[in-house]
Amino acid sequence: MVAIVLALFIAPAPGGHAASTLDSPNGRLHVETDVPNWSVSYDGHKLFDGNRLGLILHGDGDLLSNAKFTSASYRNCDRKVKVLFGRASTAVDRYNELWLSLEGKTGRRFEIVFRCYDDAVAVRYQVSKTKDETEIVVQDERTIFRPAGTPTAFVQYLSSYTTSHEHAVDVTTFREVKSDVLLDTPLTLQFPTATAAITEAALRRYAGMGLHKTGDALISDLTPRPDGSKVVVKDHLLTPWRVILIGDQPGRLLESNTLYCLNEASAISDTRWIHPGKMTWPWWNGNVVKDGKPTPPIFSLEAQRLYIDFAAASGIQYHSTIANNTDTPWYHQNNQGVVPGPTTDVTRARDDLDLQAIKLYADSKGVRLWTWVHSRALRGRVDEAFTAFEKMGWAGMMVDFFDHDDQDTVELAEHILVAAANHHILIHFHGIWKPTGLQRTFPNLMNHEGALNQEYMKWSDRVTPSHTLKLLYTRMVAGPMDYHSGGFRAVRKEDFKVQFVAPLVEGTRAFMLASYVCFDNPNPMVADSPGAYQDQPGFEVLSEVPTYWDETRVVLAEIGKLVVTARRKGKEWWIAGMSAGPARTIELPLSAFGPMNHRATLWLDDATPGADPNRIKKQNVTLGSLQNLRVDLAEDGGFVAHFRR
Hints:
This protein is mainly β.
């Protein structure tokens, strides 16, 4: 690591503001600041012009209004950060940083911090309490992003602050984005010369940030507390980073580790117990062992043993015991269904579930147990619950139905991560906001949902291949994305019908296989039933593919249409592609993967018009590094290639 701190003389601009510039280490990104105004250029092209900072505190009003500049300092950093489970094993944390110290009109001191990475600009506020204060109350935040020109916008409209963040992605010009409607983040903008995504990093002890458009600007929109305020802190205030990720093509956003770097180092000193891996998820397929057959009942020891045997034989590390055939959770409650009632007690297993026998059998097969819990059932007893979960033998826990990102809910999520770490339990968050890089601080956080994903195919046809390939460049820009992956009943769009048990999926079998390479997810589901996978072509991909990587390169990228991702684990490469729309042919040069002959196994679509979308063509080939890999993709198709030295 190289870190240099320099005191700067920056001449105050008219009005006492601080005017300065900041460049990325490679010189491609350029920030101009004249607090409270700032702008961003990339390769000499203005992307954001007329951005503005604003933070409104109780008793102070807008801190940036008539604030007086007092001093500035500059720092640069160049270091490598270990990534335990992600897109790469190492992240390059390289940036230039500008600290601006100011004094508000009431005498309050605060700082604005800008960081400029090669692929991002980040800014945050740091505010100290006055000697007479017991707390700082944020009434609102008015960080404003004003895109230059008329980029294409990929937006998710939210109906209210109470949301699971599971929505379609609308594609429109920025000028036509609806005004004064809550917008989710990340919000992706495609300019003629670059692609940018607005999001946040290091969301802790603060409210989550959405956006709303007013005029030609996107304004930060914090989820309110019940009393209408946005954030209350007893100590100094350190906001999340407001981040614009930027790349010369959209695939660069999917290679970035900057959000991870913007978080604090691990709070868990010993991470040797953390082992990501694939998991069964019987809920998705209707809690059956074979398609359409509700017997044996899913909570029976017979059914649990069948799933555990399947997991052990298939290299699936975790089996999930979730709910019975009435969709009532594994823990004690008298009422049916997932919603907690007055008798809900997560510290007790249901009487009709022989959890001890299931655990003993799973242990004998080398399979660990995962489960599910409603977040409301944990409120007020998080520590007690996780003490009980460890005694029961749960290795992982999906916590669901947060449906809000006010400060209280954000703090609940962190409390859960701390308690889970204390008891060596891995965590999925569902019904929740996008990731903000917090898996660096709490590496027991495997992934977030926050996406309209394959679970919706149980009751709708909304998760099309095009939708999936929009989410990759919007939601997944922020980090790991759980998607209920693994559906093995692929149909063409015209043949789709709703099935709550044994759901169908759109896109080819190869499209589904490719998602295990193209998606960021260290703990993905293998969500279909064991019977759905029996003797099926391509299932070996789900058994063999890694879930976290040493290196990631996005080779081809078209938002909503195509992604081709190359991932390295050790000396082996996995390359996969997902395409939405008409059949196409792509060619990939192999010279980037080393001067050698490549032994490869390919799983390809049958691209013949009208062919069964579940049909897989498997080939073993040897390709030289000067050759191209040519792949014919079916309509809504995909491919997977596993290269070995």
